[in-house]
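Quick one, tokens below:
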């Protein structure tokens, strides 16, 4: 059960997104249910990302670290969180204003639920040259968002699953979510748009194009883990340490 004044910690992993991070932070600050804290973890950016974030002041806290990758950055942010609930927002994306309020209410009404996702809309960042038809097609579409940026989860449930795989350059959330399902965590879906995902030239999927083989590695690890569990007749493994 949540207490009468549930607290939310927001983790924003950031790497060279000075052009966008201010908008991301504002979308978290302007929530109808304000978060307890916004933890910006700068992953060794070479631009003004950390300085822009630090200029907001409380409740924004900035941690500057050497470049270690998205999994390590997410893990560090989660380790610093003080709230009973944990949320994550990529530094180039945006939340709708009532995202946290509506998801907190759902968790209050569903005490057996570990976390809640929501719907996503994508948009091309202003100034990006895209055919009008393609822009309209993308921005009019709504998708189910099984994505780190839509999830609000009880911190104790997050800790049951364990940390993100720090060896993954991409696909770290796919791996984490698969482990959460292996542990039979229960998730709800809020049938409302809670996040706008920005498409721009520096998206991780573009910058890390050469790392896409990691997706196949993640999926293979998931299947191998489930196969071992089935052969052993025991529960699926959820802890990263137990997998190795």
């Amino acid at each position: 059960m949540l207490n009468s004044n549930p607290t939310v910690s927001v983790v924003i992993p950031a790497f060279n997104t000075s052009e966008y991070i201010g908008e991301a932070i504002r979308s978290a600050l302007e929530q109808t249910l304000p978060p307890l804290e916004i933890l910006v973890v700068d992953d060794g950016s070479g631009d003004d990302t950390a300085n822009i974030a630090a200029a907001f002041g409380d409740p924004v806290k900035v941690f500057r670290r050497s470049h270690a990758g998205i999994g390590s950055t997410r893990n560090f942010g989660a380790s610093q969180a003080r709230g009973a609930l944990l949320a994550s927002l990529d530094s180039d994306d945006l939340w709708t204003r009532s995202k946290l309020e509506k998801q907190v209410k759902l968790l209050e009404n569903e005490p057996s639920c570990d976390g809640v996702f929501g719907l996503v809309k994508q948009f091309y960042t202003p100034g990006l040259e895209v055919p009008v038809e393609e822009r309209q097609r993308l921005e009019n579409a709504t998708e189910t968002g099984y994505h780190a940026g839509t999830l609000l989860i009880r911190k104790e449930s997050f800790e049951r699953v364990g940390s993100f795989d720090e060896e993954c350059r991409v696909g770290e959330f796919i791996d984490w979510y698969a482990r959460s399902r292996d542990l039979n965590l229960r998730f709800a879906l809020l049938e409302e748009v809670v996040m706008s995902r920005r498409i721009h030239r520096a998206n991780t999927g573009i910058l890390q194009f050469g790392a896409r083989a990691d997706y196949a590695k993640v999926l293979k690890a998931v299947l191998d883990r489930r196969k071992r569990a089935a052969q052993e007749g025991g529960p699926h493994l959820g802890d990263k340490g137990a997998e190795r």
